[in-house]
Amino acid sequence: MSATNSLPLSLKPSPRLWLPGSQHIGLTLAFLYLTILILAAIAPHFLTHGNPYGIAPREAFTAPCWQHPLGTDQSGRDMWTRLIFGARSSLVIGIGSILLALCVALSLAIPGAFGGPFAEQCVKWVFEILFSFPTVVLALLLTALFSSGTFPLIVAVGIGAAPGYGRMLFGQFLTIRHAGFIEAARSLGHSPAQILTRHLIPNAFRPLLIAGAMGIGQTIIWASSLSFLGLGAPPPAAEWGTMLAMGRDYIAEAWWITFFPGVAIVLTMLATTTLGRFLKNRFETTTS
């Protein structure tokens, strides 16, 4: 008999709660990075005292040094300052796009799952049409219809991401609409609105939270891609995708102008994905 099997049941390690040390370190680093990112978005002056739009032509293309830890851009603007102030725009775009995508997804999934056979079929057709376009292509088409800027970018990326969340919610609602607790609520005389607000949306909250947390980084990447193509916030906006686009012509002689905004985007993607996986494991543990 192994040492583990000889332990009392209450002392045996739980395979769901146990995490390797590397995962603990990754989760800690993700929370630390997100904390700094939120602080940068809410109160950037705690992390820098510079002006993200203040130019200094004599200091243009300064490599990373003690005075400018991340160097300066082609106009002499401090990259650290611009990166910190850009966190707000990037987070607003990412979170705003996710909230819009979830609202659109709910507005399609709820009528499709509970509006009868005809509504269900219509929603399926809508999803099939939207899924015929890749998300980035759909967002690109929508951005082309509006003027460039932060708000049109949020709308384009949010609508482009909505079909994926909508299909997930639609499938979940179809699964639980005939569940025992739903039938019990109907037999007790609860109205459709009460069933929706008391049972359906609370049951969908956890997967929505997980998908939303994991999707923030992805929407930031999509928004940065559109900004890189010139369809986002116009220069010299302190937004990570715009900063990438502004530095692409100088990447050979001033690599830091594009490198550090790219690193920030990748780290945000990794941190939000780590957070989403942590929430998923946490919810699975509490429900088991």
UniProtKB/TrEMBL annotation:
Gene3D superfamilies (UniProt xref): MetI-like
**A GO CC annotation given for this chain:** plasma membrane
The protein's UniProt keywords, in alphabetical order, are: Cell membrane, Membrane, Transmembrane, Transmembrane helix, Transport
Q: Which residues form the ABC transmembrane type-1 domain?
A: 87-276
Q: What taxonomic classification does the UniProt entry list for its organism?
A: Bacteria, Pseudomonadati, Pseudomonadota, Alphaproteobacteria, Acetobacterales
**What is the name of this protein?**
ABC transporter oligopeptide permease
Keyword DNA-binding listed? The answer is no
Q: Where in the cell is it found?
A: Cell membrane
**Highest rank taxon of the organism:** Bacteria
Q: Where are the transmembrane segments?
A: 25-47, 91-113, 208-234, 254-279
How does it sit in the bilayer?
A: Multi-pass membrane protein
Gene Ontology biological process terms, A to Z: transmembrane transport
Which PROSITE patterns does the record cross-reference, listed alphabetically? ABC_TM1 (PS50928)
Query: Entry's InterPro entries?
Result: BP-dependent_transpt_permease, MetI-like, MetI-like_sf
Q: Which CDD domains did the record assign?
A: TM_PBP2
Q: Which family does it belong to?
A: Belongs to the binding-protein-dependent transport system permease family.
Just give the chief location class: membrane
Is Transmembrane there in the keyword field?
yes
